[in-house]
Amino acid sequence: MRMRNKPWAKPELEACDYFVQQPEAKKGKWLESFRKQQPFYVELGCGKGGFMAQAASVNREINYLAIDIEYKMLGVARRNISRVFEEKALPTDNILLTAYNIEKIEEILDEKDTVDRIHINFCNPWPKKKHKKHRLTHPRQLTQYKNFLRDGGEIHFKTDDDELFEESIEYFRECFFDIAYITRDLHTSGYEPNILTEHEKMFSEEGIKIKFLIAKINKNSEKMKQNSESAV
Predict the structure, then answer these.
(1) Is the pTM of this model over 0.90?
(2) pLDDT tens digits along 216-230
(3) Residues 6+ apart with CB under 8 A from 159
(4) How many other C-beta atoms lie within 10 A of the C-beta of residue 209?
């Protein structure tokens, strides 16, 4: 179901002190945009902000950047994040929001930004073959993430979609990520800590099992492969 237009979203975001209106200008400078220098996590496709509100308010020792393409979605996310932070009487100094097309993420993040972790929660599965290149886990995207994800950095990926999950495993391996953890039934796996998202709750109530994995980038393996190929 598509979200209705929200004319209040853009004005509220522009007045928000943790919304970045020109993310291109922050390329290579994101780490300097936070009050404290600490680990830097990015959520791609933050939706209504349920995950980000919980993660950033609990993990105060981590800086977060949440990205989504739609202002109307980010407007809802801002309200949800602000509500949680206000309830806990916390400053929003470890979180930033911005609007951008994630398929062009290399235009706003580079190797100087040194991302420690990427969260991808319930992204569009793009089931048709001709559309699969738009998946946030597709090799075309993973190649971009490797430009700013530090060596040993992680991608935490959740989905309800079986085909997307199984094909994403191959995408990660193709792009020299090691699968550090994997479960096809997150809620019975014993994995902790798990932050429940809006989609996760909805799908679980429908009896759909949640798939989850942690992929860790291994740049040394990629270099060894490249060196081996060049030596032939």
Answers:
(1) yes
(2) 998 776 654 555 455
(3) 122, 123, 125, 165, 168, 210, 211
(4) 15
